[in-house]
Design goal:
Length: about 375
């Protein structure tokens, strides 16, 4: 007989493959990682700390980074070969430059509540403005590490000067003072914004990398609101969907699951508890506070409750640009009461009191 996690076994097979080791036990693991409480890597001009499978083994599909940049600090020009990047600006302002495969460049300022998305391989840099900035980064690969990016200084620093001279048409002496290692964060004056290219011109990227999530009118639901940026609202974001979920005191994000994506969470404000259901009689409840990361594997049932006296705010990111969510309320509302009575072995009259329509609470 196959054991949990074997591709040939019949137990606990999630979408698209065998059960990952952290999920294969008789009990579910914790779906909380206290990112805010972890030691921070200090750089000249900023800080960073990450949560990937090395620190948070259950999070195989998504990884995250909490980063700060001081005024004029530049997260140097770099790209990611193995992950797209989704970000939410928590506070402050920053200037972001990007280049796409058509060699079209976009330079845009971001403020609180703004979102960016860089497809895999798009080059980019981030520079803190006036009072600096704080942001959360999410990557669609749980094995991604922020400290293993492809940096421009690292590459050029390991390229012979005669090759650089040939590439750029300059004398070798021009590269004598270039760093021979990865800079990661540099500091210097912020250049002025370039003039916006004419829409539709050859210099304008076809899709912007910025989406102003907080400018979106929130969609209300019983107990809270939600703002969402899927590929529908933010066309360049083809592999990830992000949302800002607000739940009022005593409110709850109803029982549901996502058939096409895993879910990564960062708790911005308030306190909460989340329960995750993983079949085989397994359910796990974890408590969350500011700075915590939550994770829900693809297809696993879950719900989130606000356990505090203030609003709960959670950044939610899914590793699919198409948003899908299936609600227990909607499912039962669309099922004949007699079928439900048979399923649960109780009187049909009990289901007559349940909502006749779905309670829409997308996260």
């Amino acid at each position: 007989m196959g054991t949990a996690g074997e591709s040939g076994g019949s137990t606990m097979q999630p979408p698209f493959g065998p059960t990952p080791g952290p999920l294969a036990g008789a009990e579910l693991p914790s779906f909380r990682y206290p990112l805010g409480a972890q030691p921070t890597k200090q750089f000249d001009g900023g800080t960073a700390k990450e949560a990937n499978v090395e620190q948070f083994p259950v999070s195989e599909k998504l990884a995250g980074v909490y980063m700060t940049l001081e005024p004029e600090a530049l997260r140097e020009l770099h790209w990611h070969a193995n992950a797209a990047e989704w970000a939410y600006v928590i506070e402050g302002r920053c200037r972001v430059t990007t280049i796409d495969p058509e060699n079209q460049v976009e330079v845009v300022d971001f403020g609180p509540g703004d979102v960016w998305y860089f497809p895999r391989g798009h080059g980019h840099s981030i520079q803190g403005l006036e009072r600096g900035c704080t942001f959360i980064l999410v990557f669609d690969n749980g094995y991604f590490s922020e400290f293993g990016t492809f940096s421009i200084t690292d590459w050029l620093g390991h390229t012979p000067h005669d090759v650089l001279a040939k590439n750029f048409g300059l004398p070798e002496s021009a590269f004598a003072n270039f760093p021979d290692h990865e800079v990661y964060i540099a500091k210097g004056p912020v250049p002025p914004l370039p003039e916006d290219p004419t829409p539709g011109s050859l210099n304008a990227p076809p899709l912007t990398h910025r989406y102003r999530l907080l400018a979106q009118a929130p969609e209300p639901f019983p107990g809270g609101t939600m703002r969402i940026a899927s590929e529908m609202e933010f066309p360049i974001s083809s592999t990830m969907t992000g949302a800002l979920l607000t739940i009022a005191p005593g409110g709850m994000r109803e029982l549901h699951w996502h058939p096409n994506a895993a879910e990564w969470q960062f708790y911005l404000k308030g306190t909460a508890q989340m329960t995750v259901f993983g079949s085989h009689g397994r359910a796990r409840t974890d408590q969350f506070g500011v700075g915590d990361v939550g994770y829900v594997p693809q297809g696993y049932g879950h719900y989130i409750e606000n356990t505090g006296k203030d609003d709960l705010e959670v950044i939610v990111v899914l590793n699919n640009g198409t948003y899908q969510s299936i609600s227990i309320t909607a499912w039962m509302a669309g099922t004949p009461d007699l079928t439900l009575a048979t399923n649960f072995g109780v009187k049909e009259s009990i289901f007559e009191k349940m909502p006749g329509d779905a309670v829409i609470m997308p996260d």
